Amino acid sequence: MEKIRMTTPIVEMDGDEMTRVLWSEIKDALIHPYIDLKTEYYDLSLQNRNMTRDKVTAESAEATKKYGVAVKCATITPNKQRMEEFPELTEMWPSANATIRSILDGTVFRTPIMLDRIKPAVKTWEKPITIARHAYGDIYKAVEMITTEPGECTMTFKGASGAEQQISVQKTKGPAIWLAQHNNDASIRSFARSCFEYALGTKQDLWFSTKDTISKIYDGHFKTVFDEEYAQYKERFAQTGIEYFYTLIDDAVARVIRSKGGFIWACKNYDGDVMSDMVSTAFGSLAMMTSILVSPDGKYEYEAAHGTVTRHYYRYLKGEKPSTNPIAIIFAWTGALRKRGELDGLAQLSDFADRLENACYSTLNDGIMTADLAALVEPAAPADLAALATSASPGFVPVSVDSWKFIESVAARL
Fold it and tell me: Global pTM?
């Protein structure tokens, strides 16, 4: 067949470890045979980020602002252990995701990919729960230090006008640790608007939660901004038949567990980081979670919600072929290709994204799965078994395969 031709590049951000290996396999087996792929490539591996003093990360974000659509592989955020593992590192570089989110001023929307044969751990959940994660500030832009003697820590703000505000953080009688975090009004408002727009676009209820009873100023301001912005959306929400409500984060957790799903849960940066992993795992697997970064001016970055799968990567280096689930990585590509097709008026490109996702579902529904999913499949009900006995179908028997065989199976159906 003649390959589908693209008119505008997608920004491609390569990454680390096992996800980098699968990234290449997915392109070779599922994309290159059908699409004359045009990308602006950026290598965000930890080694290249170190070599460029992390300039490559900022460059990839600026390219996303230029071209409008990006697809990102998982990347390593180094900690003390990683510094020992990679002795060539000259600095403990910040999260690439945090840098990109800060530059794009976007909101991350994460939604689980559901399968009929895999029931959520929370039995009441019937529909996906989308986590809307604020993608700027808080602990991800915090500064911190450790002190070893008695003393007092103060926080001072010096205004452009020359005025100063100062408060005492705490007096300590011995060694202590300190953390200062911030956010800004413009980013919080962009977050709120993105959530309200996304809720209207998907026709889903929107929940928002913080802990303003304890953090009366910091979290309280988030609540105030959401209330102010909602005043502009209230009528449209009513016309659409959806609702917005605020509740404390601990109450929200209880409500989520008792719910049927099918709504958007807006969270601050750290809360969204944690809750998206909890929701995806409870729905089946962290590897079955889409992640979209949406900026206020309509730029999109698609990625898998999971990390670089270090444990599987070291097995791969020993010559093994681990059973790493590539679904979220594939869906990052399909999301980017679909959006590129929509923006450029290329129906073929968007149609291809649909076909590739359907090939994934077909493979899974035929029982060909990676180990994480095969272990979660529930046995067929007696009614299903009776129907299978009188049909030509061989039945649903999950088979655990390695990543390469899974991708080959998807390619065959594609």
Answer: 0.84
